[in-house]
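2024-03-11 09:14:02 DEBUG pipeline.ingest accepted 1 chain
2024-03-11 09:14:02 DEBUG pipeline.ingest length=807
2024-03-11 09:14:03 DEBUG pipeline.predict start
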Amino acid sequence: MGQDNHKSVDTMASEHDRDNGFVQGSAPPESSKFIRQVNHSGLLSTLAFSSPSGGVSLFLGNIRPFVGRCCYICAPQSWALLFHNHLSLLGFRNAILVTETQTRYRGWLARRLCYFLFVDGCTVYPDVPFLEHKIINNARVQEAIRENSCSIYDQKSTCNMRNVLGIFHQIQATISPLLLRMTSWMLLKIFNWVFVNLQVHRGQIEMLRKASKEYDGPFVFVPLHKSRLDYLLVTFVLFCHSIRVPYFTCGEDVQLPFLRPLLRKLGGIFTSHDHGDHLFQVVLNSYIEELLNEQQSLAVYLKSPVSCPVLSSLSGLVWLSQVFDVFQNCLIPDAVLIPVGVAYDRIVEENYLEQMGPGKTSIFAAVRWVLRFLQKNYGCIRMDFGQPVSLKDYIENEGMHLCSSAIPLQKILLPCVLGCSTDAVYYEKSQDWLLNNDELIQLSKHHRALVADLGRHMLYTASCSSAVMSTTILACLLFHKHQQGIFLSTLAKDFCWLMNEVLARHFDVGFSGKLLDIVLHALFLLRECVILRSCPLNNLIVIPKATRNAVEELSFYSNSILPVFLGEAVAACALNSLLREVAKYMVDWDSDAEVAISQEELICKTVQLCQLLSSETLLLPPCQSVYQFSQEAVDKLMYCEILLMEENENKQPACDTWQKRFGKEMTWKVMDDFDDSESDTDETVWTCYFKLGQTQESHTFFLFLCSLLQPVLKVYETAAGLLHKLDFPIEEPQCVLKMFQLLNAQGEEQHGSATVSIVNSAIKIFRELGVFKEEPGTKGPLLKLSNTFQQPDNLLKLQQYIQQFCD
């Protein structure tokens, strides 16, 4: 293997990281055996991995970006408070690598009992005492009892108190110090058996420790929910670093019979299916209020894991609203919000695309799952803690991120779908489906919008903090670029190229070591999705399988790279749409002809695609408008040399603003002239045009960017063409499942990546677009086609409008 490719990956690991088990050279026995078999087979030559022609890459990846910085617009004081440059130099550590050096003891016996001595030395903070009495005497609970009572005798009756205590015992969670230490000891054993390492940045841990001294408020962790293991993982990592373990919200996705009682003793708060009862909601709010008032930490999962039933991406927003409500009522001086990014080489759930049934899992099935879990290896885990954000600081700067010109999507995009032009496309689309949530009714509309924006910002920061794993890069290359197969040597070069592109965009990767070992390790973890064949050129051919399960798995793991290239991908699809429109009118096409693309038209088309995508896919922070995002996306295509600015010799260069701003016509304005328009000095409005880059690398990268959004756009397009097959009126959950079944019945390879979450976002976009209209039903609102889209021609226009952004 060439020296340059060794350097591009291996130099990212410092000697400090090597000593702590971060470098992926310590692969599990299965991966090591697989790598040795490939190396000893004589199929790989050193020349096959030499540096590519054209020189060394501009970004070699020898500096790891420090991810997780908060927004300097929405929280300027928090942005400048805890971060120092030396934190990025502290390096990583393997949280599951425990030796006698992490304990207070030395010697032979300490080496044998290092796990036990380590968990015994970790700090466990005291739980909240006498919580029952505090809940019963809470002012909100007493007021709710008075509202439900008809007389003074009813208010003091034991029946009402028994109801309150019953609800409290149903949601009560405790943190048992003994069980926490025993569980951590067991997790150390299990994690070292099934994972290669658990990577944590020392600088991020140091920020958490400083935040506990700097801020006078409880911690509120906001993790991305990638797997059910997150519940234990966040608790385990914080406990191993002697940071206060949080109480955490649990959903109905936890079905293992022995796991729910365990999580409840570790701080898990479970709610019932029917928690719309007013008394239940008041007791729950009072419980969260008392926990935060006692400076207890809280972990809020805003998103549901991929294996759960169809839920909104902000289904846990009600928990964040309770934290906001406690702060608004001056019960706590502040709250410290900490986004948490979690990344897995491979998630522990096998059937990650299947839906969980409403019933509980049997004990026999649970034991069988645990045995299968212990027999496999799941690679590496990376956990990143974002920079702590003060809730007080965020609220004080609410004017910087609240948008007042939001209008419904139907007014924004429907005229474009039907063939009419409108300037409303540049407005922000409203989130009425979210702001009208019944569980947020205790807050005003302004505060609900503020909480919704806060949740979006936390998810955006956590998503940007999540590392890109080796399986994500490999699955992305096989799913989007090399669907017909590729030589292993070429795949390794593309792996190094894509890794450098990720690092250049200030996203980190969750691996380090030799390039060949990393690629083979990722191939081992994705071995069910690929076929390896030898060839007479001393190389291997890697062919992705065409089965539905393999396509779904590769699509699932490749989706994690979308936030890295989201802006370029949206702009590339918009550019592809404009090129297709130009091709329709080109009768005599010349291969040497250059197409001029108007910057204004490209930005407009990019904005239209942004409006079409759901908020889950296009997770923008509230401080960034869709027009600003589109402008930056088009600029990124210029940085990638996909677009080149076209200059006219007879006109002023587009980048020359000196003459435009300080021309001879410039005169001083009088004091009462407050018009900032430059129309007085600019007689000519300069129009910027682009032309396509002519290099092979720019064309290849353009096709790669277009393919990243194709799984989502093709599902949208096909769903629009299948709307006439649905039996209306129909409930929205049934509509999603029925559409998912229709997509699976298509039997085409391009729809193998369709998931319930993508179908759910498509149905929601159609509803906001005005394709559906609601009518009351017995169990809830029913969906039916609106009068506009009952006409087949308009349904065809909708499908063609989405189709323009597809390949």
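2024-03-11 09:14:41 DEBUG pipeline.report DSSP finds 34 helices and 20 strands in the chain.
2024-03-11 09:14:41 DEBUG pipeline.predict end
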